[in-house]
Design a protein that fits this description.
8 strands; Guanylate cyclase domain-containing protein; alpha+beta; eight-stranded mixed β-sheet; single chain; Alpha-Beta Plaits; Nucleotide_cyclase
Length: 532
Amino acid sequence: MALPSGAELLALLASGDDILVKNALQRLCYAIEAGQRVDLSRDPRLYAAIVNLKGSTDRYVRRWLYKLVALLRIGQLAPWLIGQLDGVDTDPENISWAAGALHVVAGRAFARRNLAGVGIDPDAVAIQLAAGYFQVSAPVERSVLRKAMDDDDPLLHRWISLRYGRDPSVLPKEVLADLVSGSTASVTEYAVWAIHNDPHGRIADIPLYPQDFAKFPSSVRRWYLRVLLKDRANLLPYIDLVRQGMSDEAPAVREGLALGLIDTSFSADFADELSGWYVRERDPVVRLAIARSMFSQRRRHQQFQQLLGAERRAEGSLVGRLFSADRSPRPSKIFVPTSRRRRKGSVLRSPLPAILGESQENVYLLGIDTVDFSKRTDRQQYTIFRDLLDSLRHEEVLAVEDPADIATLLTGDGVFVGFRKVTSRLSPIRVALRLKRMYEELRGYELRFGINSGPATWVFFDSGGPQLISHAVNWTARVMSAAGANQILISDSYYQQCIRPAADELPEVKFDSVSGHTTKHGEPLPMWQVVS
């Protein structure tokens, strides 16, 4: 997936065309759902342009803004979401998206209370499905699926497809076949979209015949072509459908075709056809989509360079501005890099870091483990692990620490976080309490927590963060292993040294002694559990 530049996003948001504005929001949402971390604070101009859309009169712009707010966890916008739900936005699907976003940014209890306060049933099936959309690997309960499928409400059928498109593992694929032949065009459209979003989805999964393509509703034709072009080998066998799409009366179909061609390799003959289509096309949104296809293949086909060059010389051309010769190839700075690039001319370092020094100090440890992690699919395991790290990264307690005072030990199904400073001795319990509360309300899987403290050797390297050599890590693992789902257990030493002296700093938290646990060597394992 090619990430847009900051200039491109700003140009789309400032275009005054609701379709192009929606396009910018969509590309951000797609990037986040594909695993890209986004931090809007890195570009205040872009952040302002996005939040200024809160007053948009276009229902689709509002819908995608709700989704983006949820994906970015912008908790400050919870009051605005409540206002939208209190009669400002009357579109039924928009209401469900806003309700789902409120669950994410403010928590389940807060969302349910405020939904009821504005006259919306928090137990409505559409609200349940929307709230679950943003949970990681949360399966759709059979009772909810049955209610949605048995109901005649197209909104519920669309939400079933949305949930499948977000994560195919949460629903049986067979339900999509029924939805493709749904009672309304929108139900069929969403089902075909879900098949497109499924990494393994293909044209054979759609129980519609290509011979009937012209009879499909335009919204279905759009996504049928997108599914078709997921497999590059389909371009020539179905060139007749592609040509029909180029001259389709509906601009949305033509745009969908152009977007589907972005990642498709094609011959010089087809490049000539695409160039001719671009010259004939008059819809600005479709022209922009074709330009993106040409830009992605500009090095292979000279005529694309010439057409884009002509646009750059044309006064007032949006395509010329977005694909100018001096356009930065770099994605917007809101897309946080996942790895550091090696500077040009620098010498490659050994993959093993060199030790710079060590220090004998205490460590305050939090261990986190995922319950039943081994029973998940590889994709679910990766998603869960990424979600856990993202949650920790957004913890304010961690964000204000000096990186040299934090040690992170990754285990695959969890993580150990060690705090170095004595002023951070309560950070493990505070982080555990917040994560426990959040995961109980918003996630479809469970964590267990163990907390301990003790002496440690802090080892510092020439690259990366510090590491720990300490018996305290092993003891933390033992405490954590004794915990149940969504349970926080604390070693007796941590409780006596850190919790008891600072009880007034945690007035809302109660602890009970836990006995009867031993290590595998028969050593007693005295612990305390959080009970409130």
